Amino acid sequence: MKRQASGPPHPAFRAFTRALPLTPASVLLLLFLAGPIAYCAYIAFTDLQLTGQAEDSFIGFDNFRTAFGDEAFLNAVWLTLVFTVVSALLGQNTLGLALAALMQRASKPVRTLVGGIVVTAWVLPEVVAGFLLYAFFRREGTLNAVLDWLQLPTQNWLYTLPILAVSFANVWRGTAFSMLVYSAALNEIPKEITEAAEVDGAGGWRRMWHITLPMIRRSIGTNLMLITLQTLSVFGLIWVMTRGGPGGRSQTLPLFMYEEAFQKSMIGYGTAVALLLLVVGSLFSVIYLRLLRTEV
Amino acid sequence: MTSPNTRRLAADAGLLAIAAAFVLPLAWVILSSVDPRADLTVKVPDGVTLDNFDAVLTPEITFTPMLNSLLLCGGGTVLTVICAALAAYPLSRFRSRLNRPFLLTILFATSLPITAIMVPVYALFVQVNLIDTMQGTIFFFAASQLPFAIWLMKNFMDGVPKELEEAAWTDGASSLQSLVRVVLPLMGPGVAVVTVFSFVMMWGNFFVPFMLLLTPEQMPAAVSINEFFGNRGTVIYGQLAAFSVIYSTPVVLLYVGVARRLGGGFALGGAVKG
Amino acid sequence: MRPTAPSSRRSPLRLLLTAALAVTAPGALAACGSGSGSDPDTVEVSYKQSTDNQVRVMDTFLADVKKQFEKANPGKKVKLVPIKAPDSEYYTKVQQMLRSPKTAPDLVYEDTFLINSDITSGYLKPLDDYLADWKDWDQFIDTAKTAAKAEDGKTYGIPDGTDTRGLWFDKAIFEKAGLPSDWQPKSWADLLTAARTIKAKVPDVIPLNVYTGKPAGEAATMQGFEMLLYGTEGATAAGATDPLYDEKSKKWKAGTQGFKDALAFVETVYKEKLGPEVSDALDPNISTRVRGELLPEGKLGINLDGSWLPQDWLPGSGHEWPEWSEKLGLAHMPTQNGQSPGKVSMSGGWTWAIPDKAGNPDLAFEFIETMQSKANAQKWYIANSGIAVRKDVAADPAYVEAQPGIKFFTDLVSSTHYRPAYPAYPKVSTAIQEAMESVTTGDASVAEAAKNYDEELKAATDDQVIEGTEE
User: Fold this and answer.
1) Residues forming a β-bridge with A95
2) For position C9, what pLDDT does the model report?
3) C293-297: long-range contacts (C-beta < 8 A, 24 or more apart)?
4) Chains contacting A (3+ CB pairs below 8 angstroms)
5) Where does the sequence pass through the membrane (chain A) (predicted)?
6) What is the pTM of this model?
7) Are A10 and B78 in contact (CB under 8 A)?
């Protein structure tokens, strides 16, 4: 640190003035993020309702007991797991890495074009993306038209396999993020290393497995973390495509929570589910922070 | 051993195949928006018409919601970027015992599923009279984007060498002055990425305004398009597609504009490194 | 903070947050023109706008009343706040608005099925003081008056008509199937037989529509399930009480035999593919599609639905279909095995209510008086294909002859049933829809669905349930 023109001020005072720029962000975060989380923890233990109730009261762990005995809740947990694994871990992550790896070798115009298309899908508003994919998967939609043309059997995807349809929709919408992260990571690998491996005659897959992947280990961890949590939060996409139906077969936790809190007016119960979702997110965060411990 | 040329061709072919799958839904919306008889399948339009655009370009359907979106996302983005820049500076520049816990908290908050707290946020906003106000929604938008924005901003700021600031300090400039005059201009691309990223995220967000705004005339396009879409009784797919195009254009243009100057959005990818 | 909310909680946490937010968001309290308290001369009226952009029946009617009201009360303004949403989402939106004085309108359109629930929550104002000075109130029929009367004996809403339900059928399809044009089924079996005949003889049409599942919302419960349930043997037996709710013990009835029979009927319709495609039946806009597309295009044989359908087909409604009365026939819904009384109908309806947090309740009531005058009410019943709840309108030949079908549906009022619209009813209704949905998709058998209903019912009513005793 440099000397000040007016002599060194008191260290405590200096620490205070230095922390001053943190104030606006801290105030916002405390009021609008920490506040609601604290309030969430409070409502989750009450039986607050949207309608049909004169007084709400504190009911302890009843909401949580109800949840774990509620088949619809367990179904939502299961579907959330399927949705996250299929669309984030398998879909976005693998496809993003494949795109990034191919881009390393492709010609510039193709790279620009393909990158542009994939990123467009990502910047589109959530509801628009949901609507496009609703049109794509519907019985009379594009997918069935293509299958028809290829002489393959068609079906009403949104009705028979809604959770897969919304998972694919999420892959379509979210792959760009992984692609950008991995492209940046692959660009940072020194050329000499890959070239040396090539001279040793290591084939493409072996190079990928033994050299490239270990080198971008950290990016993989970060990326998996972020896309998992983004996927846990997906609401609009599924809401537009299926409303969580039919028969709750694409009802992930965020949709379940909304339905319980507002359509069945059990705000307390919906909030308890929200709290569980937060806890799951927090567990992920903690694992993630362990991964990054050396960095911060 | 394959020659580099064959390998490049193989990579090109692979990429184009993936892109084809990505393009189909996009093609549908573009084609349907100019098709006088649009339905749910991609097909060559039965002629080209701008009637669909004409039909939706009314204050009620397009202008008011778009303006609301602009107010909400513009306000939210400005607030986010200012707060993030201010907060990132001490985190990046000074050693302090506060840094580590603060950064850990920020990283922790980055990964919270915001969707989960919307129900309590709604209940809280009712209690404190912020429900159905633009400013309440803007504050919440900013707060929800802040953790990620601060983190990105700090990563970009770490990339700016300290020597220049130290020169400024020697000349008696305050921290704020050196931040505004020296650091931010040097990290223009970083600020641009944070701005665009925050704006795009807010522009596309449906759940937050859906929960926090109630009166129709305050609804942003994200919510009003959903009402449009709810009208599947006699769906006018062409108009819906036209509105989708209008609503998506600003963010796509914004992204393209920034990406061309920064080399394809890799800046974001770079800043997201662990 | 305006301490208007009769809030039951003053937790330190909330006070702290409130204080903190009040400090940081000074603009929030100087409500920016959207709060109903903002202007003492403006009445804000929230109502449900059809999700079909072509149908603007209510908007047109309210715009007309607004003009009359503003002319008669110089300096006063009416602000219409249309809420465009499918039924179930409309209720949610309205309740969210009613929770805060900032967003509560001065006048709100409330479905009678929800009104008791909202009254319990303290969302609405009792209107007795106003009604005492409003002489037109004597013109309203008694059943309609009780529709918006709460358990405390006070009245909270002014009904704007009622409705009944029956079977609509397409004469052209019936002719192709060799069914009579004056068709009148005597039992559920008759109804299913007709549907099966259509399925066999007329391809490419939907034989029978029965609303089902959560996306259809209250339409599934009332037009679908209750039209069946209230005609079951147990519900029509001598001395039988309401099949859903036991007045004596003040408890809800767990799945009775009648409940299972009604579910079995729904299951049969969808299992034998006599109904719409399940994916279409479970689309939130199915009722809009039935009225806007399927019936006018001759793609639906029999439709179990409400008396209000023609409102969409009147001149100026966007889907004019003047020939509907020649193309469609009407039949009443039969009881399960044709036992006495032979007919079943349910009645509900909507009311105009004044929110507890309304800024201008007096002005709002003046607006109701204008809106529900004889002339305006008559205009509305006809535009909306509603059943009159004012005696003077019901007796007016101009009203009776205004539309084919009015007489048929008005005659059903004598044999109609009302829902047990107690505060827990909306949740009970959702539980019914879930049971229907699970037998529709085939995810559960009738027995399983009835068992799940019993569990849901306990949760929805705080265990106020008695095990099904068939009377």
Assistant:
1) none
2) 40
3) C293/B233, C293/B234, C294/C206, C294/C209, C295/C168, C295/C170, C295/C324, C295/C328, C296/C321, C296/C324
4) B, C
5) 20-45, 76-101, 113-137, 157-182, 224-246, 266-289
6) 0.83
7) no
